[in-house]
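User: Second chain of the day. Same drill as before.
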Amino acid sequence: MLAAAENLLRLGPGRVLRCAPGAPRTAARRWLAPLRSQGSPRFSSGGTPSGSGPQGPAGKVHRVPAEHKPSQFDKKILLWTGRFKAVEDIPPRIPPEMIDAARNKARVKACYIMIGLTIIACFAVIASAKRAVERHESLTSWNLAKKAKWREEAALAAQSKAK
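Assistant: Same format as last time:
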């Protein structure tokens, strides 16, 4: 059992290299040395690749922000939300975060407008219902009148068929 364990060399989690029986373990390590220098980058304790190229001061990676060409609708939203004063002030390329923020602000404004219109419509319905009560109009009286009209029409149709 011990002899079989001496032939195995652990490379990492889940990776094992089997040496030739009777060969020392150092021979396998010498065979692996060139592979490690060419293989995937090793990671330091900080979690960043040690040989990943220039990163600038303090090890920060700089990326170019993606830019978006605004459509006519996006330009209207940017104007309506107050990001820009005129269409001419809007640059040809805008960061997507700015457009997302403007769209969110426009959604909130549209929701407030719809809430206001709903409240105004509620008061209008209440006022028209009060006027209908003063005229003694109700849904019940409308339904009774409609059914009476249908009965008259059915009676006239029956009389014309009988002739």
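The first strand starts at residue 8 and ends at 12.

User: Great, on to the next one.
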